[in-house]
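yo

u said u wanted the structure for the complex thing, so here. seqs first:
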Amino acid sequence: MPAHFGPRPFSPKSSGWYRDVTSMTVAFVTEREALAAYLPAPYRVADIPVVTITYACNRQVDWLAGHGYNLVAVNAAAVFEGEDETLEGNFTLIMWEDLADPILTGREMQGIPKVYADITEHSVIDGHWHTSAGHFGHKFLDVNITNLREPTPEEVVGNARARKGKDNPMAWRYMPAVGGFGQALNDATTYPSENVIDEAWVGEGSAAWQHLTWEQNPTQFHIVNALADLPVLSWLPATVARGSTNLVVLDRLPRRIS
Amino acid sequence: MPAHFGPRPFSPKSSGWYRDVTSMTVAFVTEREALAAYLPAPYRVADIPVVTITYACNRQVDWLAGHGYNLVAVNAAAVFEGEDETLEGNFTLIMWEDLADPILTGREMQGIPKVYADITEHSVIDGHWHTSAGHFGHKFLDVNITNLREPTPEEVVGNARARKGKDNPMAWRYMPAVGGFGQALNDATTYPSENVIDEAWVGEGSAAWQHLTWEQNPTQFHIVNALADLPVLSWLPATVARGSTNLVVLDRLPRRIS
Amino acid sequence: MPAHFGPRPFSPKSSGWYRDVTSMTVAFVTEREALAAYLPAPYRVADIPVVTITYACNRQVDWLAGHGYNLVAVNAAAVFEGEDETLEGNFTLIMWEDLADPILTGREMQGIPKVYADITEHSVIDGHWHTSAGHFGHKFLDVNITNLREPTPEEVVGNARARKGKDNPMAWRYMPAVGGFGQALNDATTYPSENVIDEAWVGEGSAAWQHLTWEQNPTQFHIVNALADLPVLSWLPATVARGSTNLVVLDRLPRRIS
Amino acid sequence: MPAHFGPRPFSPKSSGWYRDVTSMTVAFVTEREALAAYLPAPYRVADIPVVTITYACNRQVDWLAGHGYNLVAVNAAAVFEGEDETLEGNFTLIMWEDLADPILTGREMQGIPKVYADITEHSVIDGHWHTSAGHFGHKFLDVNITNLREPTPEEVVGNARARKGKDNPMAWRYMPAVGGFGQALNDATTYPSENVIDEAWVGEGSAAWQHLTWEQNPTQFHIVNALADLPVLSWLPATVARGSTNLVVLDRLPRRIS
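structre next:
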């Protein structure tokens, strides 16, 4: 959209590849009931109620002609129990990005609940990694990772085994009717990707939210406050990784699930 | 969207009012056939094929808690000839904005084809008004207005008469199916507003487009180039205005037209 | 600087005028000793130890070809008691601006201690004015003004009388020797301006600082923390004003004082 | 400056190291007389009149607590022939940076003629590297490098030999007197650095300038136009490199030269 100028012309240089991705991931176990409040049926919380916060510094993005952007995604470990299929993975509670172009594409084509934030490119000082996100001048999130080390072979194997068959990114595509009342679209979706890890480290990480008022962030304060209120029972190991990501996996394209 | 955190909480301080709006408007007559190529049926070009480029510096926007943003809209004088109704007004070819929040709301609730650009706040030097728009570091539009004077009473009356019943803003709401292939939504819409003009001046204005490559602006270059190629037969009088705008007119809410 | 391209060419359109200035000013009485710690001799704290925080939204700035910028200045009521002259006015503790061009000019030509911050353009909602400032993603200042009303004639007269002969803006121009050790320049300066007020309102206002760490703002945290630690004995009436400012007053150009 | 809050507190985490630097360098031979016009005596053009344009994406900068910024430097191959010493190297004609903090430090402590620009982080698409710079919404520079390959051993050795004793970065520190008339500081300086190259590639590169008017960039247009008018006799091989840089080399600190 606008659609009347015809489809976006395809360049032979374009693809689904994000060729230079640096990510910071922190995760915590929360209370099942608290998290369940934000999963629309037929999604349910996974066996372990884990919330994952991932910052990604995306560079050399082919479909953006080699430009890039930053994102912060908040995902809930979830199971989709539909009429036709059951899928284990992560339900995207929200994804902040600092560039409108992928926000529009993600919302409209994959149903990912993307919204805008100013996301500070990660800083690294004395082995400490940090990023933050804010909007309208009011910071709402800090993410910190420190004490990084290389993962043990056991951790690498264990991580791969744990993710096997359970790394489906999922979302809820909802569009209102014209004028904002009633619904026009209501789909559960999955948007698989292919991730190549070149380097990865394990460390200790955490995130800190700041509660906001309507005056400070009138379009997102209720979401920030909901996430800030999720109880943190324990922080899980954090990771920093460098690699590349492909969002167009030919045999696993984004699709509706039911 | 995200919808699973519930609807955006309403503040009693919110409303449809944009309480401080400064606008620059330039317009030109183009060739009917050239313009017609971008109007989806059942829209057709109006009797005089006019393209209007409007920059607005929106401040004190109630639904944004008093924050603001800039926009550049390109509209075509058009008639909607539907099965049920005929509407004269302006078909929005594209609307660039420099804040993601109204882009999302406008696309999804009113069907306005909004996309992002960096829009320079207007400068005023020696009676010359200027703004520009670009993305990914590449400017694509300059708008200039000069030789401003107060409108004559005849111009005020004539302008009001000319607009009577013909100032319907209209758009095409199109959303693809999940994955991007096929359509999920396909609506013609109108999104009326109420405009209060506190001050207005008439002058000479024009716009200059820069052709772009895919490498320079991979998501919008084809639109910029299409607009840059519209023949300019003659520039019409330009206007600068200050006032306020209400996007929520109770008896004329945004709606589908057919 | 760079000086080897010759002086900046003068345009006949340039001048010292800032033709569209909107300002918010809050002020408080602090403890004399606490404030005195930041005034270099021969400056001393004025009879009433007042700190003033002024936000200005500068637009239509002639020397910037009609562009603009925002600033937040923190001033101390002070007296310069030099060998040759005594001057009453405001000593600029710090001035944040969101555009580098006036920062460079102000530091190097007038000795004003300007540094950079992201300064949110003021928002106005339901009669409440707000702005904030931050750097590297970390907000350090919120300024709020509310309950605005027109000033009484007595207030207008009293304010003019109180300022008479006491509105000299003053600063300390200090430049280190090459390499940063030792001094190369060490001047007390005054930089008069001419202010035209078109509209003004009086209300209640305050400012809130956030303490920062070196990691959050390595170039300014000590300044922010020093200002945050100044005791607030009482807030004075706040003002919002619209008007214009001339920085080049021919018979009162910026100069060294001694 | 401000100096009255005391010196900037030193963190043990701070240092002169820029730990993650990605650079693009293009260079051309120009006409000696044209270039000589911009070198203040006692600088003179080197035996081969080369102009080098370097973009650097600086990340993990220790003195900025691990944050970063981008720069575009334009250097002239030059010889300083002072009364006391003769130094071969590069005279910095101008250095644009997109963060005010290093602009202030560089101007005031090393005399580097730094000014602000919006500098697009480099994009990489299909082996083509690009960056651009602009200000006030008007792009003035594009830099392109393509056809990259690893350097031959001969090139590595030859390059090191050619630079031996000739890689002194030099500048002219000029500050006006208060008020802008007359001079307060006038020094020739050198600011050595230590560069560690982790990876480097050689390719074909060029830069394209856009002439600007005072209205488009009132503080820099004359500099951009002067650089745009330098004749390009031939483009030299371009390089892309990744590595780290140390600006505080203990036995070669920034200093005045005479």
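Chain C touches chain B through 19 residues (CB under 8 Å). The domain at 16-247 of chain C is CATH 2.40.400.10 (Acetoacetate decarboxylase-like).
cya
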